[in-house]
Amino acid sequence: MALAKPQPSTSAAAAAEAPAPLHVAIVMDGNGRWAKRRGLPRTLGHRAGVESLKKTVASAADLNIRWLTVFGFSTENWSRPASEVAELMALPKRYFEAELGRLERDGVRVRIIGRREGLSQELVDICAEAEARTAANDRFFLQIAFNYGGQADIADAAQRIARDAVAGRISPDAVNEGLFASYLGTAGVPAPDLIVRPSGEQRLSNFMLWEAAYAEFVFQDVLWPDYGPEHLKAAIDEFHTRERRYGGAVADDVLAAG
Ligand code: FPP
Question: Is the pTM of this model over 0.70?
Fold first, then answer.
């Protein structure tokens, strides 16, 4: 894939299509089951998951998505066996060693959200390098949630707001949804339009709790290492069947109500 600047398609059929969701977020689930079905260690499932991530970044860009957020490691994943945690901690290095040059060249800006506490200095440095080397890019935005939890992010934001209020930098009266959002790890990033979870599980698992307020959800029966462009396309097709009302009413119903 060479990431092209998102362009409206010129084909007549595509011209009639609705625009792609701006921001898609994915819970990359099912690596363990994928490995188990093959009699392989779970670690190999996670490595296969990295390959799926590479393919999905390319297919998301091809589908004119601008922001892709993926859930790489949750604040709850520390409870897994130490050997699996060690493998999960090694995945960003594996991914960026293979892909950072390409991401940089293709205009992808990388951002890693989640707590840095608990990560090795090497991993913190890898995240910082990925962000720094891609900081000037703006064709596509890849946000990786790592050591991330929606509740932890909200709690951390509340703590920073409390500190700023106590220090007199903000007034308690200024705290509203917009200000709160500006203290989250996702500050400045549009909320996801679509949250996708493969593997058949139908839950959010502490992912983007604040940001998911008006997201559409698509759950797919495919394990993450088997996830391909056709699955992302299917999720977007499903997204286009949804009517988003953001708490409002359907336009026709408003007219009917007089
Ligand atoms: C959940 O599947 C998946 C994870 C905890 C890790 C997901 C991470 C990747 C796919 C690669 C991440 C890459 C980077 C760059 C961070 P699971 O192990 O819970 O699967 P199971 O439910 O089948 O056991």
Answer: yes
